[in-house]
């Protein structure tokens, strides 16, 4: 099951083989943990009941990433970074150790999977991948889903916070003066019309994917970055509207060998709330 270098993405065929191999064992191993990160805002029954309990990949556990990011009334940040101790306790209860290969997926457009992928890396766990194409690709490739829920024993997980993977408002303001980092914007055209950080380079999240929801090839991703005028030889920071789709750009850069792209977590939601009008660009 172990692979020499954990890839950003894993295929449905690879995951199926790992699940089948694990099924031949009498115990549930902590070497691989599949997590369902499906989420949509304002789901009446909650994501766990609305999505996970309706059907999930065998052996998958529900990962409520939004629960880890409770919004406070006095914050303009859409999804705050979890408290390290809270994150540690949460993943330990899912039977995840520092030696576990975590595979995240969701049933929509993978934005929550990439956000979860980013969380694990932010807290020092690089053994994490995203299922390429998510649940949609899993089903279209002929794999079954289940409503059976497994139970795992807690594991020990040591958080090693990586501050270089995170940017705040003050650092982004400073970057406007220094231009030390290229700022990417994953917001699509509809959201982009609300404005953006001056100088931000647009690479819409949706352009990263094929029609089946899988990510484009490395060559195609490289062309997207090149055509946008982004040099991955320079420092890069990723942003969007709420800090979700920006993680997809971070993953795309990771595939291309740029391993340490930070996220401006507050993204435009925070930027527009704290900045004066002259610091908000409305031009394309």
UniProtKB/TrEMBL annotation:
Keywords: Repeat, Transferase. It comes from the Eukaryota. The keyword Repeat applies. The keyword Repeat applies. Transmembrane segments: none annotated. One of its GO terms (cellular component) is mitochondrion. Residues 28-147, 177-280 form the Rhodanese domain. SUPFAM superfamilies: Rhodanese/Cell cycle control phosphatase. One of its GO terms (molecular function) is thiosulfate-cyanide sulfurtransferase activity. PANTHER family: SULFURTRANSFERASE, THIOSULFATE SULFERTANSFERASE. This is Sulfurtransferase.
């Amino acid at each position: 099951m172990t692979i020499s270098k954990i890839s950003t993405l894993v295929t449905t065929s690879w995951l199926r083989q790992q699940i089948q191999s694990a099924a031949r064992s009498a115990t549930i191993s902590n070497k691989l943990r599949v997590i369902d990160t499906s989420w949509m805002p304002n789901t009446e029954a909650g994501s766990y009941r609305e999505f996970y309990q309706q059907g999930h990949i065998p052996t998958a556990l529900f990962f409520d990433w939004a629960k880890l990011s409770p919004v406070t009334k006095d914050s303009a940040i859409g999804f705050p970074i979890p408290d390290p101790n809270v994150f540690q306790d949460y993943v330990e209860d899912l039977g995840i150790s520092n030696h576990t290969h975590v595979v995240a997926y969701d049933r929509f457009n993978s934005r929550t999977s990439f956000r979860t992928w980013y969380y694990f890396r932010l807290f020092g766990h690089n053994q994490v991948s995203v299922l390429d194409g998510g649940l949609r690709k899993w089903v279209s490739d002929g794999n079954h889903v289940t409503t059976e829920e497994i139970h795992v024993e807690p594991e020990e997980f040591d958080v090693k916070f990586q501050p270089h993977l995170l940017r705040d408002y003050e650092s982004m303001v400073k970057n406007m003066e220094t231009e030390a980092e290229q700022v990417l914007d994953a917001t699509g055209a509809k959201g982009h019309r609300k404005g953006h950080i001056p100088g931000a380079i647009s690479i819409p999240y949706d352009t990263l994917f094929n029609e089946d929801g899988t990510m484009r090839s490395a060559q195609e991703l490289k062309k997207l970055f090149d055509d946008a005028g982004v040099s991955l030889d320079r420092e890069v920071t990723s942003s969007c509207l709420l800090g979700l789709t920006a993680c997809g750009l971070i993953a795309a850069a990771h595939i291309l060998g740029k391993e340490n792209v930070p996220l401006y977590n507050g993204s435009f939601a925070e930027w527009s709330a704290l900045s004066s009008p002259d610091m908000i660009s409305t031009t394309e």
